[in-house]
Amino acid sequence: MTNPGQASAQQAREHAKDLKLGCVTILMRDYDEALRFYTEILGFEKLADEKFGPGARWVTVAPRGQDIQIVLQKPEPAMHGEERAGKLTERIGQGTTWVLRTNDCRKTHEELQARGVKFTSSP
Question: Whole-model pTM?
């Protein structure tokens, strides 16, 4: 006989196989500056750039050929309210760790560094 907790855990694992990460959000101050960094410096492609409410845009980028999109989000008082937008603005540049895969870490590091990317340490 199966324990009800075990059955629901199994169902959750089966359901998770169908889930895929679609978007992640990076908070930033300026859409155009962020777009330049991600497209011109990192070489990502812009996938979306649409007006989305007062003063806001839906802007996404991704490494070429990737399914996961990065949403570039500017905290807008008109969208989030003054207090929430202020708290989100305080979080810009904090608390996000990303790992990008590459076949040649040192070569990619050198190329990105030559384009102006600042690293906290070398590979």
Answer: 0.69
